[in-house]
Design brief:
With 320 residues, this protein is an alpha+beta fold. It has helices at 8-28, 47-63, 95-99, 171-182, 194-203, 216-228, 253-263, 272-283, 288-300, and strands at 36-40, 43-46, 68-71, 85-93, 106-113, 116-124, 129-134, 138-141, 144-145, 158-161, 187-189, 208-212, 232-234, 247-251. A 7-stranded mixed sheet has the order 3-4-5-6-7-8-9, sandwiched between helices. Strands 11-10-12-14-13 form a 5-stranded mixed sheet, with helices on both faces. Helix 1 (8-28) packs antiparallel against helix 2.
Length: 320
């Protein structure tokens, strides 16, 4: 149902997201019968992705036939690709979770106006959670205003991420990133749906998020949610123009500022010295687990204690 208090384009996006969510929920009742194909190794697409994307595009273009579409499955083949208004769509973010019956997935829809995201909807159909944002009007979850986490110390934070899974991904490099972050936080999570990860940062459920290899439809809507909830989004070096750079870092301002120094050296935009240091670490015969646990132990080890004073001994003289 639309709301008169929301931007008209946001209302249409909500209708589109709910239409897609209904398709996803019906399919989830018998997920084993869903037809699955593979775009590449560990990168799946289902008939549900295609059906939900078609429902979204039909809803959007019925309301705004002159707008453009940029969708994960069909690309830019629908709508007016030269329009100033481009809808960026991920019809089912977390497809691998969905086909395994793991209920962490969502619909993500964003509207970019002249290249800037101005409307955002992320809908979690399994929980019926609706995240929305309009530029300059704040971010909401089910009509509740969102604010990012108030934590200021990274050591007490819960951070979400995504592991590499495609051919060509630098797994060892990602392990080093994880090692650097894990030993300095309260926990690291990998839910498996980047759009929902960003929505959770906006809601304060997690304190930060980082991942590489992401496409614009993975992060467009979530990025607006985070910034409208008072957070920051950028690439690993902290630059805000990240949408098509395939790396994303988000968090509350204080936590974002603590994550940038940890992750900047792993960015494709890092300086030569940082890239050389990472390359040296990648070729060093060093066990990552040992490095992580040793560093963590060093940080938590108590100060060295002074040696105990020597005991005084007493001689007992034998009676004659």
């Amino acid at each position: 149902m639309s709301s008169p208090n929301l931007h008209p384009m946001l209302n249409v996006a909500i209708m589109a997201a709910r239409a897609a969510g209904a398709i996803i929920n019906r399919a989830a009742l018998d997920v084993e019968s869903v037809r699955i194909s593979q775009k590449q190794v560990n990168d799946f697409v289902t008939e549900v992705d295609h059906a939900s994307e078609a429902a979204i595009i039909e809803t959007l273009l019925t309301a705004y036939p002159s707008h453009g579409i940029w969708a994960e499955e069909s690309g830019r083949e629908h709508g007016n690709r030269d329009s100033d208004f481009i809808w960026i769509i991920d019809p089912l973010d977390g497809t691998t979770n969905f086909i395994h019956g793991f209920p962490v997935y969502c619909v993500s829809i964003a509207l970019a106006v002249r290249g800037k995201v101005e409307q955002a909807v992320i809908y979690d159909p399994s929980r019926n959670d609706l995240f929305t944002a309009t530029k300059g009007r704040g971010a909401y979850m089910n009509a509740r205003r969102l604010r990012v986490s108030k934590r200021v110390d990274l050591r007490g934070c819960l951070i979400s991420t995504g592991f590499p899974f495609r051919p060509g991904d630098n797994f060892n490099n990602y392990m080093r990133m994880m090692a650097d972050v894990m030993q300095r936080t309260a926990g690291l999570r990998r839910p498996g749906a980047a759009a929902l990860d960003l929505a959770y940062v906006a809601a304060g459920f997690t304190d930060g998020f980082f991942e590489t290899g992401l496409s614009p439809w993975d992060v467009a809507a979530g990025s607006l949610l985070v910034t409208e909830a008072g957070g920051l989004v950028g690439n690993f070096t902290g630059e805000p123009d990240f949408l098509e750079q395939k790396e994303c870092l988000a968090g509350s301002p204080r936590i974002y500022a603590q994550l940038v120094p940890l992750l900047a050296k792993y960015s494709k935009f890092a300086g030569v010295a940082d890239k050389m240091a990472v390359a040296r670490a990648a070729t060093a015969p060093e066990d990552l687990y040992a490095r992580t646990t040793t560093a963590a132990a060093d940080e938590e080890a108590p100060a060295e204690q002074a040696p105990a004073a020597p005991r005084k001994t007493m001689r007992v003289r034998k009676a004659p």
